[in-house]
């Protein structure tokens, strides 16, 4: 095993990273500096610094990354309409890179010789953290205890903690594996590991109410976008963090944004998860509705294929790569005119379009109307169809000529 | 103007095609043969033959295309997961080609010298009809009255009809432009022509109840697929037509599959429509859920891009083209193992995954579990990340070396 | 027919546009203002103004667009590596938009009420011109004589000209349809209309010598790029226009860049053409070689798909569209590090890579070597392969388990 | 270390695999069975069985895979036009899977408990071999000595061999790392490891002569294809193996198919190689020329994107995957009409199209001609352009209206 003097640890205060502090000190004889990237996990942050120090860390940074998280990671992803495998809004995926980057900065400032994370060796997050570290400190040593220690289960972890009197608070009721931030809350493990089983939503959901418990009366909201960025809710301008917090409340109350899926992890296996993304789901829907009137067809269709790639790239932790930057440049350019107002009706899990307007709308009632118009010569269609269909005509004639010859 | 002896007309019994019978006879002195392609428009078909003859047609074919429509057009499109612009399930798009093809067959059998349709010169359907005609009879003359006559509005049509005592039944209450078949019902026009306005669903919906009127108690269903084709509902094997009819009822009752969108027409303008596709929406969701466990990642991801192209091709009326055939060959091959059972909960517009199983599932609890396993060596991840991330490492080192040089 | 007072004509001095001056004046009683967009057609420009006035134009603009053509149209297309249908370097395609745009500017300044071009109704250029006009003057009237007049052939044109004593110089020896500019020279028509026939290169080629006549001794050149833009030849910095002129000479002498292809026109039919693009072919090859060491895999591979779309967009005349702009933003971002030096050997039609270097190279001999290295742990490969291949493993196990059950 | 009784080794008779026989026996005490997959490496096969036995193998299979290699791997890849990173014709990539598959069959028949290969831990071939093994025997143990033994260089290998009196024949003159089969010959290593250096072709080339030494007189050939498969050369029908052998001779003599490139390996680093693929290059060019007249535009363009994916998949060793099968189904369907005759002129590295014909040609002189025709109404273009350009018009009008408002 390598020798390290000072290790920076991505700390959450949960069972895993609590144990890791001790484990690092035991195994490397090193100082451990905890870093908590605040990406909106809210109440999970309370008392973390104290806890870290009590558990043996020499220092604990609590870094408020929420603003940067929203503006530099979440909003560009909304602009891209990036959705992984048709369902997942990438809540954990883009949170890891921003934390990883901040950890590198602290590790360098602190003169640390390694960075440690508590991610399992079976998941995506190890990849996302480590790619971020490689991008900013390619020679930095990385310690991933789950890939090397002997602890094989939660029970062994608890035993390890009790042996060493590590302060842990075990929630015996619900111990799905969870990841929470401003954007979403994910749930994995336990009974969810059988895709044949319906999730027990009343036990699982935290950000959202269940569909059945959502109000019987619809909620209407209005969102304003500027160049693809949401800037106001119900007429009130507000910063991105506040906006998402408010939408999470409204959306959660109306049971918006609950997803259950089996997804393909980058590391090769499938996993099943339940995601709650109430505010995010509203923002995606609103943005899509606005794009429908602001983007021309060619741009909109090509952007659909870019969205697929963008989602893969984010999911795979490749945020800090030339391709992600180039895709973002594409996306940003498409958003030049995505400015306008979207009304939505929220009702028991449904997001219903209640009207969309934009100064840049490319929808023209004059062209679209079934009634009389002054702008469109229906005769143009005949020519259009003849040429658009010319390859079909030519092929049909070739087929017919060949068929004749055969006879 | 050309001279024609016998014209085959795509007939619906509505205002447009009723007038067209007279108009054709007046302008070309020709015999008019009506063809109705039954693609599941149900009650719209009642009395059509009689009406056509009374209106001046010499003959009226009512062609039952429902089985072929479901098996040859709808099912391959479900297998592809093709959705136009993220929302539209292509209900009208794939109905036109099958009708167009049948019309050519009848026109040839009847020795007709032209085919006529009542599509507006501003829409997609004229393209879809005419491409189908060109594919099977590239030299057949096509008459599209809306592109050439002087009638400019519904009112002028009615006047034309009254002048000639053409029997028409005008529904003064709701005259959205509609297209109905087994798969869907579309609504366009009137107040929907303003995208800023919320649709009056209680006035519009026919296949579906409104969200508010859907039952407070969820409905559970089970669907079985074989190679991507739905074959049974709630344990009962049934043919495709029956299956869709049943799902339309169940889905409609639960307000499933209502879409409101502004879409890009092939002919260059945007239009706004409301679609009801209750059964289809259920089938897409179920099929997607099943694919999540039956398709490997690479296939699933590439298939997402193919689905976009497939949707464009169908939307644009290019069903009878070599590319559509090649895409279908791709899709069909991917469905080899898409066999299994999907449970869904239907509740007030929501389709909730209630469990999915397959003999071909690629989901492996052993690999996915957070607990201990015997199959996965977490150490493999370290190597994987190092090589997957090698381009990032190399670039970061190059950047660092360059930065040093600059200093 | 419409009435026009003043018409701006895209003028080349050839047979077609010479006749059109008279035809416009005869048919519309209008003043005709000729515009020649100089995009490097060199000797074709000599005496054009005088000729135009003599032929009846009231004014003739000769607009030097070469610099803008190279910097704003050619270079971004090189950066994209855009090639239409695997062969065509888009020489005519991106020349039309820039001329069309300038014509609109002049038409507006002159208060003209229509723009006229001499493109045939069967080709791509009519589309490219007219889309450019629509982009900058959507209400401008467009006159395309070939689509409306009665002249059906070159012979009828000549007769028309002789009747009216229009000064024309007819080259009876070679009358392929040609388009020349700084970037390329295209040839269509005559015996080339039969794809079964080998082109008579000794009669056709003008920019290039034939392969057989190219020197027996190779020519070596060195090109320098900055951010994907060629900036120096053989160590000498020079502007883009000069660079391409010099490369055309060197390339032409060595028979570089001769292409013979059957291509798909936007208007639906196939056509066969021979293209000479000596300098352009060198630039594409050099740029590609440089990208091989400067772009990471993910970017390079995705950029290959973008190049296909970019080529379509350019070919189809959609230069002034939001999608082209967004694709350009993508491409530009990828070129950030495409800076370096490329050596090429030119020999009888061959372009041989003779070495490429860059301060931003991502090629690392240390990683690549077959010998010993200090940077790469070969053990990482085992983990990489296990996870990269995990979907294959899982599927194989599923197949095996199923096979067992069947027994 | 694991214990093994019987190991199947992918044997070539070269230095690496000669040593490996001893190393396996020493380290595992196992029996070693050599397997040579004959994919056309010709003279490299002579005396291999004897050599293997003399070196300590208990058995040596020489498996003739040439016919299967050509028909099941090479031809489908030609049909796809798959080229990796614009240059590489995948010669090694698709040879590995077929050998890997045969090794599994033999390993199972022999009751072996492991398969061993001599690929370096830095390359693609280890991945390609192992993915093939996993596809057919997911639980088979795999031994990759280069990833685990202490030998770090060629010199250490030679020492190891001399120590143990392993019969080896060392070529001190040229020891580029090479891979040869019916399709190609690749060269890596030594001075090629510096991309700044021009390859010494006179020392490197084996299948091809140098450009300078190619004959001064052109060679003409005729190739016939049926459904995208080459079936005859110069009018003589022949099987695929013979055809490629003959084309290799003709092409090699004319210096066709020499490529020098820096490519991106799957395992994350770039490498530089020189490839000779004389016959293959001819087949690709001929097939492309034929497709130009036999495929419609939409199919041809979409197929270009599929070719990129197909090449990646093959390069990455994912031959035995559902995605490759589905892509092949797509490709095969597109080849239905790719039947015809292609003439090519071969001259000093150049492949010049000398005419192409097909009963299924979609090229129509009547449509394409610049002269008069009876089939195409040029007026159709006006309508086509108006609708194709409608999104541009609408956007330009919106822009203009907005600009007015701002004033």
UniProtKB/TrEMBL annotation, chains A, B, C, D:
It catalyses: L-citrulline + L-aspartate + ATP = 2-(N(omega)-L-arginino)succinate + AMP + diphosphate + H(+). Pathway: Amino-acid biosynthesis; L-arginine biosynthesis; L-arginine from L-ornithine and carbamoyl phosphate: step 2/3. It is an enzyme of class 6 (ligase). L-citrulline binds at residues 88, 93, 124, 128, 177, 186, 263, 275. Residues 176-393 form the Arginosuccinate synthase C-terminal domain. Residues 6-167 form the Arginosuccinate synthase-like N-terminal domain. Gene3D superfamilies: Argininosuccinate synthetase, chain A, domain 2, HUPs, Single helix bin. GO terms for cellular component: cytoplasm. ATP binds at residues 10-18, 118. GO terms for biological process: argininosuccinate metabolic process; L-arginine biosynthetic process; urea cycle. SUPFAM superfamilies: Adenine nucleotide alpha hydrolases-like, Argininosuccinate synthetase, C-terminal domain. Its EC number is 6.3.4.5. One of its GO terms (molecular function) is ATP binding. Keywords: Amino-acid biosynthesis, Arginine biosynthesis, ATP-binding, Cytoplasm, Ligase, Nucleotide-binding. It is found in: Cytoplasm. It comes from the Bacteria. Signal peptide: none annotated. L-aspartate binds at residues 120, 124-125. Belongs to the argininosuccinate synthase family. Type 1 subfamily. Homotetramer. This is Argininosuccinate synthase. The lineage of its organism: Bacteria, Bacillati, Bacillota, Clostridia, Eubacteriales. The gene is argG.
């Amino acid at each position: 095993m390598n020798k390290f003097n000072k290790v920076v640890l991505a700390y959450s205060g949960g069972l895993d990273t609590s144990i890791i502090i001790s484990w690092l000190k035991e195994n490397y004889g090193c100082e451990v500096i905890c870093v908590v990237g605040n990406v909106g996990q809210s109440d999970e942050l309370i008392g973390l610094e104290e806890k870290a120090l009590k558990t043996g860390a020499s220092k604990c940074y609590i870094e408020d990354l929420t603003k940067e998280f929203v503006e530099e990671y979440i909003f560009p992803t909304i602009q891209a309409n990036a959705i992984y495998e048709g369902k997942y809004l990438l809540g954990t995926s883009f949170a890891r890179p921003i934390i990883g980057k901040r950890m590198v900065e602290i590790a360098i400032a602190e003169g640390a010789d390694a960075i440690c994370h508590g991610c399992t060796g079976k998941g995506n997050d190890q990849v996302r953290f480590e790619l971020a570290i490689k991008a900013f400190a390619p020679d930095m040593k990385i310690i991933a205890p789950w890939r090397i220690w002997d602890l094989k289960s939660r029970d062994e972890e608890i035993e390890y903690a009790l042996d060493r009197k590590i302060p842990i608070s075990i929630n015996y009721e619900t111990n799905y594996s969870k990841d929470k931030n401003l954007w979403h809350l994910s749930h994995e493990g336990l009974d969810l590991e059988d895709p044949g089983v319906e999730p027990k939503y009343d036990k699982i959901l935290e950000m959202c109410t269940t569909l059945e418990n959502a109000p019987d009366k619809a909620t209407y909201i209005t969102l304003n976008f500027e160049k693809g960025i949401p800037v106001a809710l119900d007429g009130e301008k507000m910063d991105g963090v506040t906006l998402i917090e408010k939408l999470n409340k409204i959306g959660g109350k109306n049971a918006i944004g609950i997803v259950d899926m089996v997804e393909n992890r980058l590391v090769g296996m499938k996993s099943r998860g339940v995601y709650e993304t109430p505010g995010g789901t509203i923002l995606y829907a609103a943005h899509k509705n606005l794009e429908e009137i602001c983007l021309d067809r060619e741009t909109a269709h090509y952007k659909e294929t870019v969205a697929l790639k963008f989602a893969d790239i984010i999911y795979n932790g490749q945020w800090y790569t030339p391709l992600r930057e180039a895709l973002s440049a594409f996306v940003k350019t498409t958003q030049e005119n995505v400015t306008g107002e979207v009304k939505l009706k929220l009702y028991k899990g449904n997001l219903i379009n209640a009207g969309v307007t934009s100064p840049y709308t490319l929808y023209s009632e004059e062209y679209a109307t079934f009634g009389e118009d002054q702008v469109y010569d229906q005769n143009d269609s005949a020519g259009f169809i003849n040429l658009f269909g010319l390859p079909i005509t030519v092929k049909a004639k070739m087929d017919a000529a060949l068929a004749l010859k055969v006879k």
